[in-house]
Amino acid sequence: MALTTTEPPQTSIDEPEHFVSPPDVATTPCDPWPRPYYLEDELRKVKPYHFTYNTYCKERWRGREILDIFATEFRDRPQEYYKDAIERGQVVVNGQKVSSIREIVKNGDIISHTLHRHEPPVTAQPIGIVHEDNDMIVINKPAGVPVHPAGRYNYNSIVEIMRAERGHSWNPLPCNRLDRLTSGVMFIGKNAKAAEKLTDQIMARTVEKEYVARVIGEFPEGDVICDQPVMQISPKLGLNRARASGKDAKTIFKRLAYYPSNATTNGTDPKLEDYRSEKERQRDSKMEWKAKEGYSIVRCLPLTGRTHQLRVHLQFLGHPISNDPIYCNQRVFGPSLAAGDALSDNDEDIISKLSKMGKSEAAEAMAYHDEMMEEYNKRKAEKMTGELCAICDTPLYSDPGPQELGIYLHARRYACQDGNWDYETPLPLWALPPSGMDGPAITTKESDPMTLVDDLGELRLHPVKPCSNGISECVEQPKPLWVMPG
Q: What is the pLDDT of residues 408-428, one digit of tens each?
């Protein structure tokens, strides 16, 4: 066989007339594998890494100055940092450095922010598996871990932790939402079809959800219904309040147990002695929340799904979750902790006080961590240390204290109304009887909020007599189902 040699065709390469320089800030790879986790002091930590945020201009950003957007929408860094980042070209629009901090952002713009990222630690507690099949994983989410990457959290999120455990190409699809501070039942779809099916069930309100909470004081016995509307006050701070002009919300509560103030606490709280003087005790007796002795374990059945609904309703009833850093914080809401308050016009003052938490001072639930906890919190709570990162000059935070890794709110059970599936977890440690005291270690039908009615449909059909204070009384019941807050 003869071999024929052929010459490659001659092609001409057109040189560009003008060389276009790349943007000053290039998008970083942002995807280290394996993830830069390490465990220390019972915390899951992430080594700092460079990262570029890319986001399209949101509708509410249109026509606003670039610095104003960063200063008002993001809480991670002070305004001075964002001003410097814009001027140095670490914040760019459409890949190009902006001419001024007063640059106007337009519809369709892509805003990029490259920084040396410092993630907060989360608990090292593993993600519990309640059930797993070919389509779905039902997990017991640890408190303090966000579901999705958001804000200061990226790899320290449920989605990324599970990806790190199961492989880079595995894509977990959360079907329900739990707040970062809340623990309990979550559904993770293994494929889009299964995730969409369950998400549609939850959105259609055909799924029964039950939570358990630990609240200050002696919660009333019997079935308590709160239907006070809930309004978002500050998206930036995640603050919601009971407001007549808010979105409809309804929750049924039923007390599972009450433990007086001399009860010990299963090691979940520091053991402290009462060093208050008689004068301090008299002062404390005038504060409504301090007159509430002990704590209660309460079962909660939300019939709507508003953000922070259970936390806001429990605050309104005068029995906030006892370590809630927002809604049980005396420094923010004052001595009454906003019990029964749906009318005050002090939202701006509340926002100002809350914005200081975790920066110059420790974020703490003052009804739970009172004056005896002051020094303990200052040592243990997450706050700025005054030190700066040697690479990027970012202000550094101390590690979070135990009271910041979660709150006493747990999603205990999710069940399909049709009876096709039902998943639940045991009671968390903080809901069990204190050492040396009798109390329920499991839930019973007698303490189930749904014993108020036969099923969800019947509850929605029965007439309800509204009250001006936002709590409703079912007409059929011969005894009162609610008590005035406080």
A: 999 999 999 999 999 999 999
